[in-house]
Amino acid sequence: MFGLRALVIYGAFLSSCFFVLILYILGTAHYLISHEKNTCEMTYMFEYPQYVRIALNEDLENRFPRFGLYAYGEGFVTEKIRRMKFSGIPVLFIPGNAGSHEQVRSLASVSLRKSLEDRTPFHFDYFAAHLGKDYSALYGGVLMEETEYVSHCIERVLQLYKGRIGNVVIIGHSMGGIIAKGALLMMPNINASFASILITLAAPHTPSLVFDRTFANYYHSLDNLMPQLKNADVSVISIGGGPKDILVTSAQTVDPTADLNLLSNSIPDVWRSTDHLCILWCKQLVLSIVRALFDSVDIAARPPAIASDPDKKMRALSYHFLERHSGKHSRYYKEKTHFESGGIWIEDIRRQYEWSGKSITDEKTEKSVVYLMIRFTDFANHLTIQALNLDSKDWLFACSASSIEGHSRVCEWGWNLSNRSKILPDSIYRRRKIVDLSLDEIKPLKCSHIVVRIPPGKERKYVNVQVDMHSRSSRVLNFDEKTSLLGAFFLPRKSMNVKIARGDIRHYVKLSGIMDAVSAELKILECVDVSQSLCGIAELIEPWNIGASQLIFMTCSNNAGSKTLHIQTKPGEQNRNPPELRLSLDSTCSYSLSVQRASIVERIACVVRDRWAILYPILIALLLLTVAVKFDDNRDSFLTTGVTVILCVALGIILETCVSFVILHILAISISCSVIFLGSVAHNIAVRFLARAIAFSTTWSDWLLGGLSQLPIVTTIIVISIIPATCGALAMIVSVFLQFLKLTQMYEDYLEELFLSSLRHFNLIRRRSDRPHNEEKEDTRQKILNQMILFLVWNFTAVPAIPSVLVWAKNFSYSTRLTTEDPVLLYSWIALVGCGTMGLVQIPCKSESKVARSISFLLRGIAWMIICTTATPDPFFYQWLLPPFVAVSMTLISISALIF
Description:
The protein is an alpha+beta fold. It folds into four domains: 49-321, Rossmann fold (3-Layer(aba) Sandwich), CATH 3.40.50.1820; 336-470, Sandwich (Jelly Rolls), CATH 2.60.120; 473-607, Jelly Rolls; 614-899, no CATH class. It is 42% helix and 19% strand. It has 25 helices and 32 strands. The protein has an eight-stranded mixed β-sheet, with helices on both faces. A six-stranded mixed β-sheet has the order 11-19-16-22-14-12, with no helix packed on it. β5 (168-173), α6 (175-186) and β6 form a beta-alpha-beta unit. α4 crosses α10 (283-295).
């Protein structure tokens, strides 16, 4: 009765976990495929691109035969490069994992064309390092090799300028950005002062997979050395791709020590999310980067070079990447501006109104400057002004109307506030800018008015200015939603619905309790002219990272309907400000706004995005717990289950645990099917491999394979002998294959036992022992099940071996031995290969010894410790410890089998 009840409970729990897995799969699919359409324009080469190889010294060329340094050229520039004549400002591009030096062409071509069209007295020379197709994103050994090579590339590039240039601009894509930081900070031949600006594009400053200790130490060293970049006045800019980049998430691109952390969908005049490769060729983003570099140059220097003043560099970079409020070039703004005499001064005392350039119809006044005066009032502390088609760079001022001109009070001069505005997009490409002013901050300047300056010209009739003076507190709405992800299964979604009156331009919605995704819908209720109305825009602001906002159209004809916005980055430890929606509206329209938390699938998509990597340690932990329970003959299974569930709930990983639990069951069923249907295929593969390896016939190879299965010590010697010639990871992969062959052999023996038991049932042959045949079959089935569990352990433990094997195979033509393998992993593979191929790792069907119980408790402790690492601030830095943990566990089991 007790066994039946336990079986029912187990079945119910498995069914619930299966339902969670379905939701998890839906969330994963939503994360992978539900993205906005790519609206980036493609960059094109103006002439045929050429890549000129630049040789390093002979010793370095021999040490790094897979790598190369190239200079980019087009047309007449190529001949100059071939003669090694460089007179510009050097820019070194470093590609990412499996990238190419040819990826520099978008940046280089646009930069070359800009220097020719603008006739600038300087230009940029673009270089690119070719780092092959190695797996630097997963393997620490390759990462160190590439870092050393890039450091020598920086040296070589500067040598080409013969002392005229002292540093380079570095642009790194993906892992290239990490390699760039490592080259500047970790190599003895150069230092941080060799770079003036470092721009990383979609670089994983926070990794998601750390499979070896070398990789982990690399990141730890960078974290400790990053202050050196600050001390060397290197401007560091990190740009991420936003939601469309599913390889490197927005949170991973945040560098805590960078001067600016940005996402492409928050950069002015870009406003688009880019995928991992699109970030290199998206024309809108490439133009912003190129313009920022050009504006960072000190033209007065001889020769022209990137400004040595870090403040000047950051003004140019911030203008293009964060604070662009007018034209394509940053410029110096005078704090004080004197107004022209004879202008038209218009003062409207209404708190909300709209002014149109069409109201100026008198020919005499068409040539005069118009000044719109907005008087301060005690009833409002905030002013929002939205201007359409107003191209003037100096257009907004604060002043004191202390003079009289005609019948009006006017200002003689004003404080320039134009740089406080920002540009906004519009669906029909109208030029739109907006500014938010806190009047309490401006009043100490002893000003009485805010003035909008509108210059004369034919285009003035298209100018439209909307004014909204208000109390900020009246525009802040609070949406408090603190439902957990688990509660979202059962509770209906809470919704906030409000109406926004005509005349309002700005509204804010504080999203308290929401840190994953929010759904919003904005509808036009009434409008003076819907066809000419401005698009309602919603920006999701993350206060802890000013460069991580995202902007979407809400009321345009082709963008109407509910929109879901996902929080992109993680809040800082000291920042408790909730995210907020900032609405930019048309003052001639009234709206209805609906806000609610996103659906369960969309919220799970955020979980998948941020926490998918912790499935791996949880899977290994559950397998070790299963081995522990089996090793202890299921005596403490309920206690183990209870402690594990409590631990997972307390750590907030119950979702991933349920998903992992079902995955293991699915994999067990898949392995069973593979053993049944593919066992002979695996056996034939092994036979043919042996036949080719030792030049035997398949018959002799089949006999040899059968003999090796009976002589495990010989198999162990053969497999371990692979390690000195190749790498330990390859031996680990081979041992996994041997474990599968062992499992198929056990299944074949089981079938043979079934056949013999049927003959014994009819007394056709004698029994070989006094044990009942039912008990023998039960032991055989249990052994197969135990071996399947161990096979799963071997498979998941071998995952970190895959990058090493890929790197070894990639570089086999250069060397048959992988010399950069992490020692900790190497010793782990040796221990696992030895214990596994010797057949010492076995789960006893029945065990009453104290040693077995001790090992069982030790395995539980290791498994629970692995589970605890998933809730640490940086769980990825513990992934490389998993193979050593498993190796220690399997070694203890082997020792107990030998001694006891």
